[in-house]
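Forwarding the complex inputs:
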Amino acid sequence: MNPESLVYLDAVSKIYRSGEAEIYAARDVTLDVKPGEFFSLLGSSGSGKTTTLRMIGGFEIPDRGSVYLGGAEVTTLPPYRRDVHTVFQNYALFPHLTVAENIGYPLKIARVPRAEISERVQAALKMFQIPGLGDRRPSQLSGGQQQRVALARALISRPKVLLLDEPLSALDAKIREEVRQELRELQQATNLTFIYVTHDQEEALALSDRIAVMHNGQVEQVGTPREIYNQPASLFVAQFVGKANFLLGTLLGIEQGRATVEVQGHPIHATAPAHAVSVGASVTVMVRPERVRLNPSEPLENAIAATPLRTTYIGQLLEVALDTPLGGLRLTQLEQRSLALGLESSVDSQACQVGWNAADCQVL
Amino acid sequence: MAANIAESGGGESPTRRPPKRPWVLASWTLLMFGFLYLPIIVVVMMSFNDSRILSLPLRGFTFAWYSAALQDAALKEALVNSIKVAAAATILATTLGLLAGFAIYRYPFWGRNSFRIALNLPILLPGIVTGVAMLAYFSDLGWRLSLGTVILGHVVFGIPVALGPILTRLGQFPRSLEEAAYDLGAKPVQVYWDVIFPYLRSALIASALLAFTLSFDEVVVTIFLTGRDNTLPMEIWGRLRTSITPEIAAIATLVLVVSSLLVLFSQRLTRTPS
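Prediction (whole assembly, two chains):
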């Protein structure tokens, strides 16, 4: 275990039995979260991200493996013995208590004197920009306000770690982006450790210091948003996060971190994967659509003739589907540049050249 | 008007069509309500009528029967007995119903479904069965019949009555509230008193009101289990064997008003708060 880590999961598994079959909600999950980190668990539903979060919070006890908090093992401790608080997806505000009583609840439980509770609650209301709402009931608040109350309640007793279970999913798209920004600012201002569960890759990329991508109960990759996006460790990660072109080929060789892959008889230069791959193996090469350049002005490491099939207007970007000797490819570029190239007016079967650099292309 | 609705709706819906002769339905409905409620109305009228026998035309309006009824020592004693029995049975039935409801909701124990059915059986069984069975049981035990045995008999059917609203409310309880309390540091007992109990409070009051009302006017089980002391319905029933007097009509009207209010209040409480 890394001595710097605040939350450490050591090969944690949670198994559900249905008859004879064993279903792994989480399988050998090993994670290492450092103090002050904004750490996201990203995955679709059923990926095990929420189960993992619940094992950290103490709501599920792992069948195998151990959970450590600040160096101490907490695997089987109940939630009330862990210095971790959770913001629930539906906020779970107590309906029969006022906003102020909700926020002050952890302090009341900890037997903090009344005067101090009310002082700290007032400060929290102010900090979360909901002063004057203290006497209302949760049902009288908007979704955004309820979310602030849930955050204030979870943070008021200054836990070591804040767990957030898709806290933005119940909000309107418009407020969501605003609150997302506030969450990041809050985390940086308090320097607290956040563990954030989401299925929204954009949210994870925008907020996190590091992301663990989960799939079928297992961790596929842990890395910074840039690593996840640019050097996905698996086909799943590449597909789940962002859009990508995939080319199937045979590995010809690896030299100094650069791989050469034969795709439909053409050599393609790409970044070698972190794991060992033997020469002659079939591999998948990934290149992001925005890294593929149409009629590049300077020579690039990979270049191929292409025929545009169709263009799709998607807001500020233009997506171009192409037919190439390597197979179908998609590229996106700013609309302005497409206009400059006269692409939109003469898309049909005008032969062109596309290319990309080896650094922008990853062997999975 | 009807034609407009049909046009805008794009065709007449057979289920939404207004009745062809609304007055037929209306008079039939009135007739049925009359059949159900007229006897009760007659009793209420009798309690205010200034005459020992009810006959048309009505004589003057009076409260005399009410003061007479409340000065009748036997009636008053029966009323007090009924309140004692109902209060004790209510407290016991609601407490046991809460504990049983919690067990059913929380723990997947062996035989949970059978347990639930067994608890509900007393409201399905005819009162005479419960009454005879308990009488036989108590006399085997050598217990003397008293208000105490009546209370026990009322608790038996009070538990399923109380269990209903409690289980309904528990079924709506969001688990995340409980988890949030644990998460914020509350221990199991604190979670119960701070979160679960307040959530159940309205259901508990509703349960108690229902159990009280049913115990208060219960006759069949009581006949078998009571000793020398009479409950109010028993006293009324005893006097009815001779003839119905205006005093009894007055007491019956009072019971009617109080029970209706209790039931209405309990129904308001069981509605899910928005």
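Residues 7 and 162 of chain B are 50 Å apart (CA to CA).
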